Amino acid sequence: MIFDIIFSYDFYVVAIGVCILSIASAMVGCFSVYKGQSLVGDAIGHSSYAGVVLAFMIFQTKNPLVLTLGAGIIGAISYHTINVIINNSKIRLDSALAIVLSGFFGLGLVLDSFIQGNANFSNASQAGLRNYIFGQASYIMREDIIFISSFSAIAIILMLMFYKELIICIFDKDYAKSLGYSTKMIDNVLLVMMISLICVGLKTVGAILISSFLIIPCIAASQHSKNIKNVLILSSIIASVSSFSGVLISSTVDRMSTGPTIIVVMCILTLLSMVFGKYGIIAERKVRIQI
Fold this sequence. Notes:
Layout: H1 2-6, H2 9-34, H3 38-59, H4 64-87, H5 93-115, H6 131-134, H7 142-161, H8 163-171, H9 173-178, H10 183-201, H11 210-222, H12 228-252, H13 258-276, H14 281-290
Helix pairs in contact: 2-3, 2-7, 2-10, 2-11, 2-12, 3-4, 3-5, 3-10, 3-11, 4-5, 4-10, 7-10, 11-12, 11-13, 12-13
């Protein structure tokens, strides 16, 4: 039975789509994690749901591109709202993230409740909007793969174009300024990469879990290497293995959601890496004993 699933067309459509998204997200997420803004992606992911609902209310269509653009705009607004709060008040980053995350996500839920059964929005079907909260990876279609691949390609191309600048700005911002780099522009490049992957991943993994694709693979990879290039490669491998395994498990076991299953597999690999990795708990204890 398992071989019938592995060699089925539907399985490979879902597996390819999720793997492409997870690989691109893992690589871009490394820059976010090393910049110390890993939870910013979580805030943007939750906030972007409000953009999905607003886009539907304005255009009364569930066209994926329209909803993705709406999510992207609100995601960008939420990011800049966080910066305004921490730059113009004594509120710390973690508090600002909590305020923006809960505020925008709550707005999305309120608007979603408002349009349910509202006659003003009866011209377009509202069914499926809440799927953007938890995602529906198991229902990926061929068109979705093209959509995911396009946005992932944009993010990867930007990463390759600004790779050197991203590395310098993340690890030594003062040195980057001395070289004449615009750190604000590089921050915006990273923001565009993050938002593009977060928004395109909403339909697949959902607003709640998409940030895990950005954060967890990098944490796991960091337990095996301190070289940024190696971490990028390892994080993409961990992400792809987790995605393929998660899709396979959810396809063979009844009532197993694909997105959450992928995240569970990622977490298991991360825990194993934290224990047995080159820079994991066991390795550190051996070093301490030798000292």
